[in-house]
Amino acid sequence: MVQKLEIKGGIPLAGEVSIGGAKNAALPALAASLLTEEEVVIKNLPEVRDVDTMLQLLEYMGVSYERESDSVVRMKAGAPSEDVAPYEMVKKMRASVLVLGPLTARYGEARVSLPGGCAIGVRPINLHLDGLKKLGAEIEIDHGYVQTRCKILKGAEIEFEQVTVTGTENLMMAATLAEGRTLLDNCAIEPEVTDLANMLVKMGAKIDGIGTRRLVIDGVDKLNGIDYEVIPDRIETGTYIVAGLITGGEITVTNCCPKHLEEVLKKMKEANAVLEIGEDYVRVKHSPELKGTNIKTIPYPGFPTDMQAQFMALMTRAQGTSVITENIFENRFMHVAELVRFGADIVIDGHTAVVRGPSKLIGAHVMATDLRASAGLLLAGLAAENTTVVHRVYHLDRGYEKICRKLGGLGARIKRVP
Ligand code: EPU
Fold it and tell me: Cα of 68 to ligand 1 centre, how many Å?
């Protein structure tokens, strides 16, 4: 059933909210189960749609799994499967491409539907494929599928032209089982990439330079099983902090890792947010005098593109001008036209959006276009007078667990309506 979210805004949030596991760390961790015949147990899985999609996809690839609870899954990758995941499944989630590296490395071949474009940009996978070619795989594209084949992958030197998160993850996984040494240069160093590297090392992989742009991976014959716990979701953390700030509330965000959110917290402070930052919590205090602040999205440790829409929503309520530059995805301003429907004053010029605030936001019917854009609209709805209806809520369910329950627990008046 197509669902919408109905929000009665204008209520300052109060209380405590606990953060779940990181979606973008969970997805590669699940894909890594393909690298071993032994049992892999993943804990602190977020209860989000993308995790369900990845598990279904892995089932097509011969992985059997059992969910011990909502946040724990036991998995075992048996013999390679003849089945091919259909386009219908892969198109729902671009992270499907993460099975390519592990499958090719372990079984010598993979066939996966090409993910196609998505709302935030073209998002090619050329860097994943070029890297696999350098490792010795033959790549063929036919009828919208990528087919890889190799006798054995062989270590190689690969420099990414552009920093890519899932590209780094895919090749890192492939290289763990390649023969000899692989050098990966200009790697992504997002916490999710580092988390995956740590997981692979615990599975027996030999990886040096973890947390740097240059990874040195010495291939091993096989990897072992593992019990692994996913890191907290930094984007969910940032989104709830904005929820506290934008409603003029006072909340505590717990079970998080503020260290992974340094640039975002710095920018929030620059915008006059009053925050108490602990080892694993952030307390949002009453912050009545928010001021316009500029941000530019860049790869980690810079300001994350996945927090851009939420920060923009916040800046509509801040005094003065904010210049927001999106450098990662060419089409990640889809929320702007919708924020304007709340009464925000935002003008786009190429990769830059200029927000003039503070605007009084008034509830509206708005359309979600992708996961983080939806989060931006939801936040605006929490701050707006009257009722907001966010259509196409399935985007939010892809990446935010129990969103109504968590926000409801903070006093928000929010419900799903058919
Ligand atoms: N790019 C290429 N060729 C490639 C790969 C990437 O041109 O082969 C370009 C992309 O088009 C983009 C840039 O490189 O302009 C960076 O993209 P990247 O590959 O880093 O993105 P991704 O790995 O597909 C992950 C997250 C995204 C997040 C980006 C950027 C996962 C599963 N997804 O995507 O998360 O926005 O990194 O940090 O980790 C989200 O959670 O809402 C989300 C979109």
Answer: 31
- Based on the fold, state whether residues 133 and 270 are members of the same structural domain: no
Find the CATH number of the domain harbouring 176.
Answer: 3.65.10.10
Helix (H) or strand (E) holding 269: helix 262-270
- Residue closest to 314 by CA, chosen among 399, 254, 382, 387: 382
Atom number, ligand 1, closest to the C-alpha of residue 162: 14
Residue range 296-309, pLDDT digits in tens: 999 999 999 999 99
Euclidean distance between CA atoms 10 and 242, whole angstroms:
14
Q: Is the CB of 396 under 6 A from ligand 1?
A: no
Number of the ligand 1 atom closest to the C-alpha atom of 328 = 15
Distance between Cα 388 and ligand 1 center (Å): 30
Rounded Cα–Cα distance for residues 306 and 242 (Å)? 13
Instruction: Identify the domain containing residue 241 by its residue range.
Output: 4-20+232-417
Closest CA to 27 of 399, 307, 368: 399
* CA 122 to ligand 1: nearest atom: 11
pLDDT in tens, 99-122: 999 999 999 999 988 876 667 777
pTM: 0.97
Element (H, E) at 202: helix 191-202
* Closest residue CA from atom 16 of ligand 1: 164
- Name the residue at shortest CA distance from atom 6 of ligand 1: 164
For residues 378-396, one letter each, b for 16 or more C-beta atoms within 10 angstroms of the residue's C-beta and e for the rest, the string is bbbbbbbeeebbbbbbebb
Tokens of 175: 């290289």
For residue 181 the two structure tokens come to: 């040494």
The answer to whether 45 and 51 are in contact (CB under 8 A) is yes
